[in-house]
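HUMAN: Mind sharing a backbone?

ASSISTANT:
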Amino acid sequence: MKNFEKQLVKEKINTRVGLDTGNNDKYIRTWSEVYFNKIKFDAKVAEDVRAPVKWVPHTKGGSYRKWYGNFDHVLAFDEINYNELLNMGNHLPSRQFYFQKGITWSRISTNDFAVRYTPAGMVFNSACPTAFAEDDILIYALGLLNSKIVNVYVTALSPTMNFQAGDIDKVPFILSEKDTKSICKLVKNCIKLSKDDYDSYETAWDFRQHPLVELRTKSKERINEEESLYHIEDAFSWWNNECEVRFEELKFNEEELNRFFIDIYGLQDELTPEVEDKDVTVRKADLQCDIKSLISYAVGCMFGRYSLYVPGIVYAGGEWPPEEKAIGVREKYFPDADSDICSWTDAYGTYMPDLDNVIPITDDEYFENDIVEKFVEFIRTVYGEKTLEENLKFIADALGGKGQPRKVLRNYFLNDFYKDHCKIYQKRPIYWLFDSGKKNGFKCLIYMHRYEPDTIARIRTDYVHEQQSRYRTAIADLEHRIVNAGTSERVKLNKSLKKIQEQADELHTYEEKIHHLADQMIAIDLDDGIKHNYEIFKDVLATIK
């Protein structure tokens, strides 16, 4: 405890309490809910946030994670909302520190103390106190606060795991001049490793492309046998290796930092530098999870959120189609094209998004453009025709299903995709599932950011009515076959007839519900958020669980 007699954190870094809005439902969204181009990522002062820009990145705590990440939210911070917030909640404390780079932590945690670097351009919430200092001191402090020794101190200072700024202020801060350069180098590498991990998932706003698509290129460069060039299994192998290397490097760095600080604080007899795997907060590859995330990315490509040609988000609200994204794409990918005029098709190349923003999910092949066929075409486009069936089998096996690959995929989309999607997006789904009920009479996905007032009318006339017609045809065919069938065959046919009749009845009821909404031609505002907008259509949408 002699270290408490020395310099404390509060004497070297400025720890600050963030804002409370007083009305989170009005002022805070997850970043993926809103029109992406209305988020101001590089504001330096509040005056930079002016219409049409409305939102700024907002740190709000989050799960146990060190070094970088948990950037899930945005805050309404344009002139109108800024002036309101001055008189709301806790009246924007510490606003002279808004948009500055800092280090932050979740105030309440069920795990150990974990600190993250926050780049410039963010506003911090009271749920995540943030500290500020000059560059080297800030980076040094990040390494210190994520070390084993500080975890011991903060646990003693805050045994309830409620890490207040005042508690962190009381931690001893010993600056070792001779070790600062080495420590800062290690910390910067930790930040990079954590950011690389964080940005490889679509829930990060700096996400560029799914790693199993991106790493297909690396597999092509490194694998000699031509028939292996476009196997997803090869891409996953490289991804698995990349994750393992990153994990081990971060763990090594953290142990090196522990060694430095244990020596600096003279705690060699009390602590060891080793870090347990469970405390390393970058992810290792997981075959099923990574295949599911590939499927999610493919759905994003189906709707035009992503493109195989343009990194990052191509479309998330605004004018559709996104012609501005085609600039430069034609020259790079289509140099021999006849026309000099860039069109939105150039932004998507050989895998075009769905034209009407409606993708049916059915338990049989009722529609040529259903989600299974679109996914098969995605795999064919990315990995080639030659390995298509092998790749589909690899995906189906990873999902854990039984039967033919396309049937496994159909069952996944029908039963599990939406649950996974809602979990990934923290119950704020960006793809909405129109769902007639438990009999699976009708399901389809739309992309919320492409919703138009006539979307539901198109679902009703082009898909629900078409599905009803197909059910009528199927019922008539089964009834005819039953008349001429033998006993055992008749049992099977009657079972099929019962199922389809139940689906048809369910869809009849659903058509009445969707008809009522279609006639209203309802418009939505993305700024209102998914919680508000989803509620409008709850009678025809799947329940978010």
Remarks:
- The radius of gyration is 27 Å.
- The first helix runs from residue 24 to 27.
